[in-house]
Amino acid sequence: MEICYWDKLDSPIGSIYLAAIEEGLVYSATSREGGKEMHAWLAKHLPGHLPDCTLKQGSNPILNTAKQRLSAYFTGESKVLDVPLKLIGTTFRKSVWQALRTIPYGETRTYGQIAAQVGRPKGPRAVGQANHHNPVSFFVP
């Protein structure tokens, strides 16, 4: 049985909730409701993608690294947010999130450009939806 650890990081923009398995970070986002969004997302997505996963508050090496990277980012010490990720989503959404990770720091791309990059040139609205459902904000900008 796999354990999905979760924790939070107090940051200049509020609490950031994070969840990770041994393979990588599965969730990172701010919360207006004390982590309820994270728990709801994990309850919805873990059973389908990681059926033998137990949720536990605590930490693992992935969460420790994620918190270190975010802290350095917020203090201006680093612009790099590189941690192993375990992207949970459809094949299309994962392709969009991977494409977003190729955008250099400080640059932007349109949804149309990303749609073309992932081989769906008529799919900018679908790219927007994939971006909206990104479970690892900060690490997939």
What does it look like?
With about 140 residues, the chain is an alpha+beta fold. The protein folds into two domains: about 1-75, Double Stranded RNA Binding Domain; about 90-130, Arc Repressor Mutant, subunit A, CATH 1.10.10.10. Helix content is about 40%, strand content about 20%. It has helices at about 35-50, 60-75, 90-100, 110-115, 125-130; strands at about 1-10, 15-20, 25-30, 55. A four-stranded mixed sheet has the order 3-2-1-4. α4 packs across α5. The longest helix has 14 residues, at about 35-50. It starts with a strand and ends in a 9-residue tail after the last helix.
Quick structural gist:
The chain has 141 residues and is an alpha+beta fold. Helix content is 38%, strand content 21%. It has helices at residues 36-49, 61-74, 91-100, 111-117, 124-132, and strands spanning 2-11, 14-21, 24-30, 53-57.
